[in-house]
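Saturday, quiet lab. Running sequence design on the structure tokens for the scaffold JK sent over.
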């Protein structure tokens, strides 16, 4: 299996041969490299920085912020901390990059790196919570992460290149994580710019260490060690002093001076050249690196600058040549940073990448788009479509980018990475989305999960206009089916359109191995249940639940609706079993609190009400309401159903005022939709009539006991009293005694009359 360094720890390869490199280079192109052969490099070692490690390891500091330009040794410090015997806790290292587009991706990568550094089952809970469509960061994810930190013991987390994480939402969750972190855990944050986190309280409490260029600059002994390692000979003291005066201890510039000294017998000329390059050190670095390469190797290195990370195979496919990575010391000579432990994946030092890109644009401007296009193709075939999208967008290849987005969006939306999909769609542009049906479908789903009903309609209309032959990249059988699934799943166009779309989707999605088949079955079963047809709903719901490729949320929704169907049909034991199944699925996938799982506590509430436990039923329905409200604007139909179920419970409890308010709220939701016709309104009106009738009747002399309420649920069925006794696991004499008590308390002269009165009072559907 290929290891992708984006999803875990990295082995930091910074050393004296490849220091984290300096400020962004100024605009000035160097000469084209000559044809010199590759130089055999001198083996080098990192310069020991016990002074910095003492700051990182010692004292009560919870956070160490290292803020300096490229080349000051931030990555080297993290690498030395990783191997430092004085570090008493496991260390996870995350290499941030510009692909970190949303807080879910950011935290997911943090969790993955922590799980590698300090293995333990606790991280799995946080990972599952992050896998929701709409993860609850404050209420679920961050508490789970804190429990994981506490459960695994103290651990340290270093985040390199934090400045590349541009989304403020990522900064918010990181600050919240730091704030809540149990004592003993430590953070090291390395960035080129001031970290945009609220760390004032830590600073005031003396728990924040801040390191900058003044602390990172090399002293005389450290500079001498670095020069000696790079040149193979000990430098004269006056040479070291002169270099420090020119470079002010900047590690990247000191190392550049050492490289120049290695090939020169005139230190004064080296110092003069270095002084004249002030402000253009990156350009001088590039000249030094390229001067040791053949023309073909230099061209390959320059072209590889469009890649944020690469392997030898990727460079050969994209840049059309090979880098001399098999040569001893080549990684250091080319200023590459290893991103994995087996030396397969690398990135350019930031010091050089901007210079190489600029030179590429100057020397081969027409080649840039082609390089991005080849990178997208290589990543696509290598099974990394998400990274391919960025290159396709950079190449201006809208059709390829749109197709890739149209293929990968379901996986990202189902794991909480909606903002990543939004960023891709923004990069694609509205015009390109409107011209490409798969991209428009992806945009419609993304808008629907954000509650943007107007945008959903616009994108679905655009998809219809654009058209698409055959199956879509997301696996739906055809464009008609893809559109129908969105309309059936969310029902923004009203009940009639939702029902028609559900039937159409079920007719198209007949492949039982497809997740869309399970979704189509769920939507059709949902429509039947809302229509007051639980028996018809069950067949579709069972098909959706048992489908091989059904997503967890589909199984959860299907099992909750099946429980409601069985309860309405007088099968409380089966209803209870199905709710247990739904609860296990919710726990297994850490979906507690998810709005899409709100029907589970609603179904459990109905079962509790059947036992006359109206207090528990009310609490469960309040939970269901809260879950739905966590993402405003999504499908109104589960909200309508929960309100109707809650009204039924309140009628059974005799609280008719609350029941009528709930029914009014349900009707108001329906009336906001384009289509206000449908059987659900008839059910609302019927419940109103029952509530009024029950309110007019005097209360029975004695309330029904919980066991008697449970018996009432069986009375509408065709089961005999003997069969009811068997279903409930009690004796026939017990059932007969309870039946007589029910008839007496309801004022009924027999079973049929008892059913009629019980229905009117809301005790049974």
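Result came back. Writing it out in full:
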């Amino acid at each position: 299996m290929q290891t992708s360094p984006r999803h875990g720890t990295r082995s930091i390869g910074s050393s004296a041969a490849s220091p984290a490199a300096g400020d962004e280079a100024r605009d000035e192109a160097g000469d084209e490299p000559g044809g010199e052969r590759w130089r055999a490099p001198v083996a080098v070692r990192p310069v020991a920085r016990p002074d910095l490690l003492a700051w990182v390891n010692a004292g009560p500091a919870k956070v160490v912020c290292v803020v300096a330009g490229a080349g000051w040794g931030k990555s080297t410090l993290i690498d030395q901390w990783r191997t430092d015997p004085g570090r008493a806790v496991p260390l996870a290292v995350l290499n941030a990059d510009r692909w970190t587009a949303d807080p879910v991706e950011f935290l997911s990568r943090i969790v993955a790196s922590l799980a590698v550094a300090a293995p333990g089952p606790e991280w799995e809970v946080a990972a599952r919570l992050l896998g929701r469509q709409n993860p609850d960061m404050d209420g679920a994810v961050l508490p789970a992460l804190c429990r994981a930190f506490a459960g695994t013991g103290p651990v340290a987390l270093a985040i390199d290149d934090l400045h590349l994480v541009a989304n403020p939402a990522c900064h918010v969750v990181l600050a919240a994580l730091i704030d809540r972190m149990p004592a003993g855990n430590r953070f090291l944050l390395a960035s080129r710019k001031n970290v945009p986190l609220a760390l004032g309280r830590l600073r005031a409490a003396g728990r924040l260490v801040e390191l900058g260029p003044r602390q990172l600059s090399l002293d005389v002994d450290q500079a001498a060690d670095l020069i000696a390692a790079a040149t193979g000979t000990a430098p004269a003291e006056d040479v070291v002093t002169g270099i420090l005066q020119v470079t002010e201890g900047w590690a990247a510039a000191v190392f550049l001076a050492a490289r120049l000294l290695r090939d020169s017998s005139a230190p004064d000329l080296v110092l003069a050249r270095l002084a004249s390059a002030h402000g253009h050190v990156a350009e001088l670095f590039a000249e030094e690196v390229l001067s040791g390469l053949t023309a073909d190797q230099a061209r390959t290195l320059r072209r590889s600058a469009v890649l944020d990370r690469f392997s030898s195979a990727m460079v050969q496919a994209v840049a059309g040549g090979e880098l001399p990575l098999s040569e001893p010391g080549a990684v250091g000579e080319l200023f590459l940073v290893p991103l994995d432990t087996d030396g397969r994946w690398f990135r350019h030092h930031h010091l050089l990448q901007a210079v190489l890109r600029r030179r590429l644009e100057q020397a081969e401007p027409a080649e840039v788009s082609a390089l991005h296009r080849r990178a997208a193709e290589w990543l696509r075939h290598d099974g990394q479509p998400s990274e391919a999208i960025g290159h396709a967008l950079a190449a201006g290849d809208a059709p390829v980018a749109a197709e890739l987005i149209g293929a990968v969006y379901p996986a990202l939306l189902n794991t909480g990475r909606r903002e990543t999909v939004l960023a891709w769609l923004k990069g694609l542009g509205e015009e390109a989305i409107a011209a490409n049906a798969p991209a428009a479908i992806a945009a419609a789903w993304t808008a629907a999960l954000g509650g943007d009903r107007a945008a959903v309609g616009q994108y679905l209309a655009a998809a219809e206009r654009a058209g698409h032959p055959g199956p879509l990249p997301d696996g739906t059988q055809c464009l008609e089916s893809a559109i129908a699934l969105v309309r059936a799943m969310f029902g923004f166009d009203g009940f009639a359109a939702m029902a028609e779309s559900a039937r159409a989707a079920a007719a198209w999605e007949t492949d039982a191995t497809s997740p869309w088949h399970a979704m189509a079955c769920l939507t059709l079963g949902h429509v039947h249940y809302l229509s007051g047809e639980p028996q018809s709903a069950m067949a579709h719901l069972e098909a959706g639940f048992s489908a091989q490729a059904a997503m967890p949320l589909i199984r959860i929704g299907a099992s909750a609706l099946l429980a409601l169907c069985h309860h309405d049909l007088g099968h409380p034991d089966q209803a209870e079993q199905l709710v247990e199944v739904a609860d296990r699925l919710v726990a297994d996938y850490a979906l507690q609190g998810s709005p899409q799982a709100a029907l589970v506590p609603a179904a459990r509430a109905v079962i509790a009400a059947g036992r006359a436990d109206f207090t528990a039923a009310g609490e469960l329905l309040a939970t269901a309401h809260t879950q739905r409200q966590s993402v405003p604007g999504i499908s109104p139909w589960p909200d309508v159903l929960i309100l109707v179920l809650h009204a039924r419970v309140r009628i059974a409890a005799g609280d008719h005022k609350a029941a009528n308010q709930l029914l009014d709220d349900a009707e108001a939701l329906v009336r906001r939709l384009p289509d206000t016709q449908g059987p659900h309104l008839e059910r609302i009106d019927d419940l109103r009539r029952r509530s009024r009738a029950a309110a007019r009747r005097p209360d029975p002399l004695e309330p029904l006991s919980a066991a008697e309420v449970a018996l009432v649920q069986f009375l509408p069925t065709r089961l005999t009293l003997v069969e009811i006794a068997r279903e409930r696991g009690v004796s026939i004499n017990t059932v007969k005694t309870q039946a007589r008590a029910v008839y007496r308390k309801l004022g009924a002269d027999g079973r049929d009359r008892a059913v009629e009165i019980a229905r009117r009072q809301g005790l049974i559907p």
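Notes for JK: The domain at 706-760 is CATH 1.10.10.10 (Arc Repressor Mutant, subunit A). The first strand starts at residue 63 and ends at 67. Ask whether to fix the surface positions before the next round.
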